[in-house]
């Protein structure tokens, strides 16, 4: 029954939602993800700055990448290629392209409707923009519950399963012991809350990402003469024009969209939870940064994995096996047996930070549902650690099907909310664009212009100090806060 429901939801509903509404947001915003593409790098550079006691935009980016860059970038791509052929990679690209606009709006709205806690830190996400933007508390609670179940519980079990079985394949390590070790290490980080999670993500995410990209690019460069032909095969297979993969066009679309969403999470409502905690001058700045993270996740990392598999010579049409083994054996076919070990270690780093991110999403939405309750928080942490250990040693076919269903339900609730709040998203985008057109390098959000919106005026004060136009000389020797 779960498989039947999952096939319908993820095979039909999810495609229409992600590609259909993502395309709508893209066209109505005049391709915001392309118009601001090069601006993303300038915002990314500025995001390295942080306010005292607050998480910087860069830290929020590392947190979101901690979640986006996980098992889906290794195992998920392998599964997509196995079941959908090379054409699945093209549909992953399509999903990411339109998903960049969805992520832009969901993260901008997450920032817009964020709330300031008593200690000055921020919290927000889809549940908050549904409650305060649509004035539907019950729908916000449903969204929070779905995020809690999907990320806090189901996805954590799946991630743990992926890494422990990968380490078992590469090193022969017992899944029980690796499951216990993984749960113990994660428990130490959970205790420190969002700031400790952010510090760990700051350290591990750039390292794991750059090392993985470096090794895969090395393999691709070794066979660079085959890359143009393989890219052509990917495009032709996506439309059933390659004879070897002509019968997989339906599977290519379904697997490309499904695994693409699992990898980059654009439109699911997960990234806005961490995007909201950052201290930024304008909500749109965080939307721009998070759109960049979708690009990095899919167009760079997932493409590296796909080309690694397709160029290795190990993969053949009709290949039977799991996605992790396919990626491990593909790298080993080019560089030797150490390739299997490298994939396992890389996957372990990917999964560790991804579980931290998933845990935070669950905790944030638990707080939305029941408020500050220390006993409930301790119970949640304990349950997550138990499920991580359970996922490490059990077969998770049923859990995977359940997670796909709740993921589709998340996309449905979140994307409909984004559609209903799209005019608000366009208003703040126009405000940001108008300031940039006027020559202001770093646009500043003034909540006085948006009195009709239910905003937290502590998070977004009225009449903040205006930013100087880009052409104007910066005052020398005067701290930015005083300016």
Automatic annotation (TrEMBL):
Chief subcellular location: membrane
Classification via Gene3D superfamilies: Amino acid/polyamine transporter I
Biased amino acid composition, Low complexity: 468-483
Region (Disordered): 459-483
Location(s), subcellular: Cell inner membrane; Cell membrane
Membrane topology label: Multi-pass membrane protein
Record GO terms (molecular function): amino acid:sodium symporter activity
Membrane-crossing residue ranges in chain numbering: 12-31, 138-158, 170-191, 203-224, 230-254, 294-318, 338-357, 377-393, 399-422
GO cellular component: plasma membrane
Keyword list, A-Z: Cell inner membrane, Cell membrane, Membrane, Symport, Transmembrane, Transmembrane helix, Transport
Family the entry assigns: Belongs to the alanine or glycine:cation symporter (AGCS) (TC 2.A.25) family.
Descriptive protein name: Alanine or glycine:cation symporter, AGCS family
Biological source species: Pseudomonas moorei
Lineage: Bacteria, Pseudomonadati, Pseudomonadota, Gammaproteobacteria, Pseudomonadales
